[in-house]
Amino acid sequence: MNKAKTAGTANSGQYKKAKTWSLLLFAMFLIIATILVIIYFPEIKKELALLKKVKPFWLFTALLGQLLTYVFTAIVYLALLKVYKLPQLPHITALFKAAIISLFFNQTLPSAGISGNTYFFQFLARYRISKNKIISLILGELLIFYAAMETIIVTLLIICLFTYRVQHAFTSTLTAGMIVYLVFACMVVLAGKNNMLHRLYAKAMKLRLIRKISNCLAGKMPVELLPAKEIQLREIVKHHKPDLAKAFFFQFLVVAADGFTLYVIFLGLGLQVSPFIILIAFICTKIISILPFLPGALVLYESSLSFFLSSTGIPVGAAIIATLVYRLLSFWLPMPVGAFLYRKWIISHPPADHDYTGY
């Protein structure tokens, strides 16, 4: 009885500590977001004013396009979760909210996706999914994303070389992106090898910023909780091709929905722009801003997208307006939504009191 009471007291203490850390983290991210809004307020004000230039119907359609990116991301994760035949799966609505919150962390605090994936680890852990399956799912999602990007980049390169003439800046950027994503994919494969995650985790925890993110978002996760055995990514691919193919297809749709948003904004400005131009400018911008320098790759993203769009012959003014409106819909508006959903998630989902063994 005393042991049970002691365990209950310990769990209660851990919950209060975890909740305190979560609230502090939420406050920190809110402060960062507020600072960003204050610093870039003139730009945000300009973007809001530019909304008047876009016809309401097309603006609403563009907003739907952005919502679809989160829906498709949730479907990608759901397809990967089905690989493990779990007795309980997160509902698509919960995954949709998790996708928004992950984006909120990744955009507010640049960490090459570490902050968003750390949150997603804890999100899945509360469904009592084992650490091996969570990590393999995250690695699998990254591999599928890199594979989708490689496919798109190679296709664009072939079209540029043999069909559609573009400036050298486009082909150079696409070639660099192909190499970078290939390197990232190799790193993910190596991360699944035996003991590799232990070494990566140990090195990452030496960085103060990453250590704070890990401790605040997911609780202190010691090295021994990482998978001791190799994550069999090859076996997963071999035995679950239909589910992986579905995830791969919807990863394409995530990119397509982003491109569709930008395309619709141009329609709202009264310009008919080729979908190919939209796609190649968007992908090149994604490559340029792949490494985090500022939250959401601010300034770098806007200048790159405006440059690539105007380089194809689109009027500079229209390219800048479309870029700023797109960033308003894809970056600034989701930030308060992500903050609100995360705060709500903290309150309604107390930390799970389990040892990450799960199903």
TrEMBL record:
First-listed, main subcellular location of the protein, grouped into a coarse class: membrane
InterPro entries noted in UniProt: L-PG_synthase/AglD (IPR022791)
User: Does the keyword DNA-binding belong to this entry?
Assistant: no
Q: What is its membrane topology? A: Multi-pass membrane protein
Pfam families the UniProt entry points to: LPG_synthase_TM
Q: For this UniProt record, give its keywords in alphabetical order, as a comma-separated list.
A: Cell membrane, Membrane, Transmembrane, Transmembrane helix
List localization entries: Cell membrane
Stretches that traverse the bilayer: 21-41, 57-80, 134-164, 170-191, 248-270, 276-301, 313-333
Q: Which domain of life is it from?
A: Bacteria
Q: Indicate what this protein is called per its UniProt record.
A: Lysylphosphatidylglycerol synthetase/UPF0104
Q: Which organism is it from?
A: Niastella koreensis
